[in-house]
Amino acid sequence: MGKWMVSAKKADFNGIAKRFGIDPVIARIIRNRDVMGEEAIEKFLHGTIEDLYDPALLKDAKKAAAILCRKTRERKKIRVIGDYDIDGVCATHILTVCLEQCGARVDAVIPHRILDGYGLNERLIEEAGKDGVDTILTCDNGIAAISQIALAKQFGMTVIVTDHHEVPYEVQADGSRLEMLPEADAVVDPKQKECPYPYKGICGAVVAYKLMEIYLDRMCADGVLSVEEKKALLWDLLAFAGFATVGDVMELSDENRIIVRYGLKRIEQSENPGLRALLAVNELTDRKLTGYHVGFILGPCLNATGRLDTAERALAMFRTKDSAEAFTIAGELKALNDSRKEMTLQGTAQAIEQIENTDLKEDKVLVVFLPDCHESLAGIIAGRIRERYYKPVFVLTLAEEGVKGSGRSVEAYHMYDKMSECKELYTKYGGHKMAAGVSMPEENVEVFRSFLNAHCGLSEEDLTEIVHIDVPMPMSYVTPELIRQLTLLEPFGNGNPKPVFAQKKIKVCSGRILGKNRNVGKYRVADEAGCEYDMMYFGDLERWNTFLEEYFGKEETAGLYHGGSDRICISVIYYPDLNVFRGREELQMVMQDYSI
């Protein structure tokens, strides 16, 4: 269990509540998200498309758009090279659709995760040369492809990079960082030091979307398409920008909130056969979508094909006009994701066994080598292990050429910066603060592990997860109206978590285990005043029941499920919800964490 901390940020909550017509509790939550000032609060609660930043602020965006307009008019062959994850697939779709709409000669290639690895490589450049490609347009990759882009320039190609990843750098003698940018004709990446774009947290698909806004404006000015056609196209493609923002786990702050809020609506209403089929096979048609649906149901289907097959299938699903073909592909993607889930469970179990039965568990940075694990699952398994141990984690697997792996970090550890301190160990690496990818010779694995642990600079406090409580609030304060106001704070996700509240001295009176897999707990609980509530728990039931047995005994715990208990009294972190059954609304609390 993590360390509980109440957010205690100050503001005039009653004044904010009165100004915006919200409950003071909602005002406190907004302040906890570091949203301050009337303009920022208004944008947080009611931001619209008009509040998005001008795409022309992206360095080189106007230059890149001008090049693409010229290449479109000249009928030069343009090749979009994307990436095999959600962001890369959505970005590729956005670029190709817009370019095709304006009559460009364009095709798209998505690298194969295992055969090609991440981003540009020499084979892709050579293949483009053989195919007579004039211009390479990258999306969600390219910022680190210095040698590959140099090769493309040798072939006489024009290269435009659109990316959102960290710019590679070298540390100078004075400790400063010298950016190492590829010699492309235009580099559009908000992470560049000289890029004036005010919000750096957009994903690759949003960078692509912003570039296409400028491109389409210019093509409108040239009479290639009407203003109405441009608006309709951008409105449709907002679904893919929002999808990618959630799927690539971007922070849902600033303009990302607006992109996702409108993007989710567009997914619900989309006429794209691929999106409609994906909703249908996951039984989400005609449902109000949230970030959860994209992040944990729809998105993993796209990622699964890039992990276990080829992401070209996901792109084909979005691009087809044939509903039957879309349904076939969507069904295949869901089946692949179901298979991926089972393989992930097996790999996670192997990783835990290795940690628990070796000296790995003493390390502050976990480097787990699973030679037989499918390399595409390394990142997911690393994330699961990070959740369990709350330590930075690398999961490495045996690949065709040495070892490949992925890392997932904790808040106190900048993974990319720390990796950069021993970059001579790798054949390839990249990433950012919270996640990274790496390739290296097998003989370097132990050296890598030793170096990272010797130089991690992590304290025990850094490795204690902090559970942030928005408001200590009695369950008796919860009303259906408060729950409805909580929806103003959506979409929830990275950077804008679902608000949680805490209350002490809650008696757990009775319980039942529900669900096909018997993995959901439903309890009747009471506060000190004797008011009773339904409380659900969707977490680790085994861990929860072990906690109850440790503090209240096996007999009392068993009695909780058979007749009830009057001795189990705990503190809980919860969020309130409305359960709608046969047209009736009933309050229920959802337990997130617990303590004595």
| Broad structural category | alpha/beta
Q: For the CA atoms, what is the radius of gyration? A: 25 Å
Task: Tally the helices.
Answer: 20
What helical percentage do the residues reach? Answer: 40-55%
User: CATH first level of the domain at 55-237: which class?
Assistant: Alpha Beta
Average pLDDT across residues? 95
**Distance from first to last alpha carbon:** 11 Å
Largest sheet: 5 strands, parallel
Residue share in β-strands: 15-25%
**What is the oligomeric state here?**
single chain
CATH topology of the domain at 55-237: inorganic pyrophosphatase (n-terminal core)
CATH architecture of the domain at 55-237: Alpha-Beta Complex
Total beta strand runs: 20
Low-confidence stretches: none
**For the largest beta sheet, what order do the strands appear in spatially?**
3-2-4-5-8
Overall, the morphology is globular
